[in-house]
Design brief:
By secondary structure, this protein is mainly alpha-helical. Helix content is 62%, strand content 5%. The chain is built from 26 helices and 8 strands. It has a 6-stranded mixed beta sheet. Strand 7, helix 25 and strand 8 (632-633) form a beta-alpha-beta unit. Helix 8 (146-157) runs antiparallel to helix 15 (331-359), helix 10 packs parallel to helix 21 (460-475) and helix 13 runs antiparallel to helix 14. The relative contact order is 0.13.
Length: 655
């Protein structure tokens, strides 16, 4: 028996000696010394120039640099020299196809914005030409869009009547467009594109769905033939107005509207089921306009309760720079409207451009797109245009029609120009009901139920944000619903910053791996150790919470050890792998935590601090009483192994 015990002791001592020999500990080293100026330069570069747009100029001759610079500012110079007849054929087909959609949509969206219908056609002529020169997307089809039109019309109408003060309303619309363009171009020029990232996918889906319902409800005026309709945008006022004016309902208008809606929705369904038949839904709005116009003209339906557009002026866009009101009593309204419509239209345009760029495996520069869309709107505001951007429905048709370059926008623009010059008298008898039907059909696609369900499955808080945006738009107002959703999203970010996640790690038996105890059931606590992982930067906003939470972890751990009669806590190990940064408040937090732990007889151990963290901690450790080298380890496994040997050495010496 004594011989067996002696052999066992020899084996244990041999295994410990092997462990000591084979276990290799890696020293935590500070990052290479870097000047403050160089750090600032790196930080600014990563913030404003993450794509490093100047890398293409390195090592090039002066002449080549000038050429590359011109191509960067004007992307048309990049693909223009290689343009050929084959590409032109594809772009002509695509341009004519989207023109058949843009003409009726332009007229419809202008009425949605409470503007003269002709302004919608003006906005489909000049902006596409500007974008063709400055834009980097091959698929984006530019023109008025429903949501921006709705927002502009509703915000301006709060202070100015589009019927009583039509000239002033038009001036404010052009001025808002100018400010929208100025804001968009400034974001691109100053490389501040990350601002629009605050409109998350959940916000956009909820906002678009709510706006689509509001837009559709607004069309009940045209679809039912009501003449006295509410000026408010909420769900309750609109439905109240509809049912309080049942005596104004026109059965002729309702019948025509039902037939047109059925035709347009059927064509949309056919194209969605068979993408090769994209031309069916693309041409359906123009066909419906032609057929309804002929029907009204033949039956003199305007004399039987069906409202028509009336005579539209012929000719190209008149200059409007003299109509811009950049001062005066309405400056605040104009600036606010421009800011909101600019953000919404910019977000939609860039999202659409990137979507189709991914499908065709090319890249769209977000900052260049901001400048292109911004300059496009600034030029448009001086040529009788209101806010325009890349619409998803029009761009999808452009993509499916085989557009190869931005020349498709030029073809569309030329088609609209010919319409403005020669075909305007044909729209005199176009009924308002067909415009309402076109708008309803266009915005139905903005209600994305599958995406909403996917968000519900993935993240309930994101779905709550989506719901707030949706309900806010429907029951309050378009801009207030958007503001509420953005505010809740920012509140979520603040919660994540001020209440960072901390988890207790345990060892997976037989390995050197440490994982979350609540996630991996096989993980076990290491006696004498409390191992915590902090999963957030440590700064002034969360140091108080972290201090309180860590002390509570210690109290819970001590209570659990007392219950199980295990060895008392000796080491608090903080895994800092996820702590990307720290500020002076964070450094003070470590000092305070260390002193608190010393009073409890617990040693603080830091594992895997990143470059910025270890650098700042060492700078604050001038007299080396704060972070000693033996309290810094590269991995949790090395820390536990090393400190366990220390604990065993201390216990054997005590014996």
């Amino acid at each position: 028996m004594e011989a067996n015990a002696s052999n066992n002791n020899m084996q244990e001592s041999h295994s410990h000696s092997c462990l000591e020999i084979t276990m290799e500990f890696h020293k935590v080293v500070p990052p290479p010394p870097t000047s403050t100026l160089k750090k600032l330069k790196t930080r600014l570069k990563e913030t404003f120039f993450p794509d490093d747009p100047l890398r293409q100029f390195r090592g090039q001759s002066l002449k080549k640099k000038w050429v590359l610079g011109a191509q960067y500012i004007f992307p048309i110079l990049q693909w223009g020299p290689n343009y050929n007849l084959k590409l032109l054929k594809s772009d002509v087909v695509a341009g004519l196809t989207i023109a058949s959609l843009a003409i009726p949509q332009g007229i419809s969206y202008a009425k949605l914005a409470n503007l003269p219908p002709i302004v919608g056609l003006y906005s489909s002529f000049v902006p596409p030409l500007v974008y063709a020169v400055l834009g980097s997307s091959r698929d984006l089809a530019v023109g008025p869009v429903s949501i921006a039109s709705l927002i502009m019309g509703s915000m301006l109408r709060q202070e100015v009547s589009p019927t009583k003060d039509s000239v002033l309303f038009l001036q404010l619309a052009f001025s808002s467009t100018f400010f929208a363009g100025l804001f968009q171009a400034s974001l691109g020029l100053l490389r501040l594109g990350f601002v629009i990232d605050f409109l998350s996918k959940a916000i956009l889906i909820g906002f678009m769905a709510g706006a689509a319902i509001i837009v559709s409800l607004q069309q009940l005026k045209a679809l039912l033939g009501i003449t006295h309709f509410t000026k408010q945008m909420g769900l309750v006022p609109v439905l109240s107005s509809v049912f309080h004016h049942t005596n104004e309902w026109s059965w002729q208008t309702i019948l025509m509207g039902f037939c047109l809606l059925a035709f347009l929705l059927l064509s949309r369904h056919i194209s969605s089921k068979r993408p090769k038949l994209f031309w069916v839904s693309a041409g359906a709005p123009l066909v419906s306009v032609i057929l309804s116009t002929l029907l009204v003209f033949a039956l003199k339906a305007q004399n039987h309760g069906i409202g028509v557009i009336g005579k539209l002026p012929e000719g190209l866009n008149p200059p409007s720079w003299n109509m811009l009101r950049l001062h005066g009593t309405h400056l605040g309204l104009v600036f606010k409207t421009g800011l909101v419509t600019g953000i919404i239209s910019l977000t939609e345009g860039i999202a659409v451009g990137r979507t189709f760029a991914a499908l065709r495996n090319y890249r769209v520069d977000g900052n260049k797109e901001m400048m292109a869309i911004g300059l496009m709107n600034m030029v448009g505001s001086s040529t009788s245009c209101y806010v325009t951007t890349g619409a998803f429905s029009r761009s999808a048709v452009n993509h499916n029609a085989g557009a190869k370059t931005a020349v498709s926008n030029v073809i569309m623009s030329v088609t609209v120009m010919l319409t403005l010059l020669f075909l305007m008298p044909l729209f005199q008898y176009t009924p308002n009901v067909v415009l309402g039907a076109i708008i309803v059909t266009a915005v139905v696609g903005l209600i994305d139920i599958p995406a909403s369900y996917q968000i519900w499955k993935i993240d309930k808080f994101d779905f709550f944000v989506l719901l707030c945006a949706f309900l806010g738009v429907i029951f309050i107002s378009v801009q207030d619903g958007l503001a509420i959703a953005v505010g809740i999203s920012i509140f979520k970010l603040l919660l994540q910053i001020t209440r960072p996640k901390t988890v207790v790690l345990g060892n997976i038996p037989g390995t050197n791996i440490y994982r979350n105890l609540h996630h991996y059931k096989e993980a076990v606590r290491v006696p004498g150790f409390l191992i915590l992982s902090v999963e957030s930067p440590i700064n002034f906003a969360n140091t108080t919470y972290l201090n309180e939470r860590i002390l509570r972890w210690i109290e819970d751990n001590e209570a659990e050890e007392d219950g199980k009669k295990q060895s008392s806590l000796q080491f608090l190990v903080l895994d800092m792998a996820a702590v990307s940064s720290i500020d002076t408040s964070g450094v003070a937090f470590f000092k305070e935590l260390k002193h608190t732990l010393e009073n409890k007889g617990v040693e603080l151990v830091v594992v895997n601090p990143l470059a910025e963290v270890i650098e700042k901690l060492q700078r604050a450790n001038d007299i080396r009483d704060f972070m000693r080298p033996e309290s810094l380890y590269l991995t949790v496994g090395e820390a536990v192994a090393s400190l366990s040997l220390t604990m065993k050495g201390q216990s054997s010496s005590n014996v």
